[in-house]
Hints:
Layout: E1 2-4, E2 7-9, E3 19-23, E4 29-36, H1 39-54, E5 63-68, E6 74-79, H2 85-89, H3 99-102, H4 109-128, E7 132-133, E8 151-152, H5 158-181, H6 195-212, H7 216-225, H8 233-236, H9 240-243
Antiparallel strand pairs: 1-2, 2-3, 3-4, 4-6, 5-6, 7-8
Protein name: Protein kinase domain-containing protein
Domain Protein kinase: 1-252
Organism: Selaginella moellendorffii
Amino acid sequence: xxxxxxxxxxxxxxxxSAVAHGYDDLGERVVIKNMGKGKEVHKQILKEFxxxxxxxxxxxxxxxxxxxxxxxxxxxxxxxxxGNVLEYLQMDLSKAGKESELGSRFFTREEKIKxxxxxxxLGLAWLHERGVAHQxxxxxxxxxxxxxxxRRLCNNPPETTLKVGTxxxxxxxxxxxxxxxxxxxxxxxxxxxAKGEVLETIKKFxxxxxxxxxxxxxxxxxxxxxxxxxxxxxxxxxxxxCLGSSREHHHYKGFT
Length: 256
């Protein structure tokens, strides 16, 4: 094991942006990310660290520490998480060593999707209501982490805040929901084409979803999230797809 401050890790840390899995001095699992060198990197990680510290929530990845290694690389330390959304949907929790946390009951794919969306939107609502847009969400960070693209919205005029900030997160969450419901690839949006052509591509994509998504509640949520004037994260939480069943909600630690 190699030592970095009060953290031990086996391998993987070496290059810039590389991620290593290790342990702190209390034996807790952590993730250590090499952020690179230089003044700009320092400014960036200070911004990320400040945002994450001030937006602590069970659905936002917990940042633990930051520092400078002997080679002049800045690093950040995060809580350890496992897996991504699509892998998680294939996992039978009753056979994945989770009996002590969740019981032995099998969770259906539909139940998992509802819980994933509920957790994701709770995290987004928490960020958005604190003036932060994540803007870098993927299937790998539904417990919201990697705030390198995040920015505060307080300096933007109110009429542009939703359009250029939180709406990006809602769009990403909507696409993630489509990916969980259907084995589809998002259409390529032509970068240099007129706005009208981009909107036409999106319109055709949404029309195709009408025939492909059989769950009408889920379809309603998708269309609301991928609209030109999308719902907020808090509004989306009121949709039936996010309300789940009458059973108690579970927090899936193996996924988030």
